[in-house]
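Tip: read the tokens left to right.
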């Protein structure tokens, strides 16, 4: 039997939160154009972060920590508890090595990523031995419970997770900035290669989300990992390409929400629901053969993962319908 080239596949996605569906569906573009440089811009002017970045550093009122010791971190008490995939935390640990952990500090210099490790709840915007590169480095952070940052976070979450009608009541912005510089002026101007990224935790007191923003991402020659993991690894995600070793330069071009440099995730579990995804395949595959069905489901699953969906989803084929080409 000839199978038409256009097959509609109806698939049930189990354990998929509505919010995560929204991540996949979100297509709206946000302006990511950095402030335009004009002919008079010179190395003497301070570096300007990409537009996707939330305000940061002392100019925004942040608490700043400059790199001093090796593999060190700061514990931060949270003014509003943050629930990360079902576990609620009153504090977290910000590491110079581009890592944010919840249940315990992680003084290891690099990721040595093992997806089944599952000992920690962490967000790794760019986990690597950043404090050993001989660069100047710092992180700065701030918690917000009012003002324009909450408005911005509310808009971002409603854009990426549109069914939630979400209103942010607490936002935590932490920004890492590393520059291959020896003096503060060069550091501030980013007049040498740099690595700059940001994590934005957003909650309304019960639902939790987070954004990762990437700016400059100089190639470094060390282990790297970007993504998140949870205790027992029930939820985990690795940004594709971030563990291939030694090169992270394209992170600023990657996204799961069509905004280059930005990744948006729901940190909620227990919102399980059965939803349907209707997908139009454009290549030929005879779905009367079960091995072809498995292959197609795997392709779809991998595509959904690459857009930021949790690895805990399960897919089943419910119905295949032949339609006219
Ligand atoms: C160049 O840009 C800066 C800031 O964006 C502005 O203050 C300045 O007037 C501009 N100069 C010219 C010649 O356009
Ligand atoms: C936010 O709340 C803090 C502390 O209550 C207050 O000092 C600050 O002025 C408020 N900011 C805005 C923008 O309302
Ligand atoms: C969204 O929430 C606001 C207040 O939180 C409410 O006034 C509004 O009706 C809600 N919209 C929908 C579509 O549920
Ligand atoms: C958080 O947002 C969700 C979805 O809008 C809502 O159901 C829930 O009540 C909110 N939680 C709080 C504490 O406001
Ligand atoms: C990122 O995208 C820009 C514009 O599309 C391109 O010029 C640049 O080479 C890309 N960088 C990387 C590292 O892929």
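Filled-in amino acids:
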């Amino acid at each position: 039997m000839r199978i038409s080239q256009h097959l509609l596949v109806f698939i049930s996605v189990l354990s998929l939160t509505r919010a995560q569906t929204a991540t996949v569906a979100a297509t709206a573009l946000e302006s990511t154009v950095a402030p335009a440089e004009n002919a008079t811009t010179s190395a003497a002017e301070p570096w300007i972060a990409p537009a996707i970045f939330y305000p940061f550093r002392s100019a925004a009122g942040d608490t700043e920590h400059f790199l001093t010791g090796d593999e060190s971190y700061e514990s931060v008490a949270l003014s509003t508890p943050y629930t990360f995939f079902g576990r609620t935390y009153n504090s977290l640990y910000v590491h110079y090595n581009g890592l944010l952990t919840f249940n315990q500090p992680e003084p290891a210099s690099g990721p040595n990523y093992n997806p089944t490790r599952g000992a920690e709840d962490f967000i790794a915007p760019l986990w690597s031995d950043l404090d050993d590169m001989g660069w100047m480095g710092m992180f700065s952070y701030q918690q917000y419970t009012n003002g324009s940052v909450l408005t911005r976070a509310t808009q971002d979450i409603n854009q990426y997770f549109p069914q939630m009608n979400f209103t942010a009541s607490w936002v935590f912005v932490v920004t890492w900035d590393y520059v291959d510089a020896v003096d503060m002026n060069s550091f501030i101007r980013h007049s040498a290669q740099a690595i700059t990224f940001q994590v934005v935790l957003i909650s309304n007191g019960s639902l939790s989300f987070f954004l990762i923003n990437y700016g400059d991402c100089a190639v470094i020659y060390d282990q790297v990992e970007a993504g998140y993991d949870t205790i027992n690894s029930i939820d985990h995600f690795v940004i594709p390409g971030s563990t291939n070793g030694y090169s992270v330069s394209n992170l600023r071009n990657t996204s799961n929400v069509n905004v280059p440099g930005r990744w948006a995730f729901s940190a909620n579990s227990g919102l399980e629901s059965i939803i349907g995804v209707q997908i139009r395949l454009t290549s030929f595959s005879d779905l009367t053969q079960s091995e072809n069905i498995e292959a197609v489901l795997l392709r779809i699953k991998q595509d959904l993962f690459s857009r930021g969906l949790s690895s805990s989803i399960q897919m089943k084929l419910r119905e295949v319908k032949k339609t006219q080409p």
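The first strand starts at residue 7 and ends at 14. The chain has a mean pLDDT of 79.
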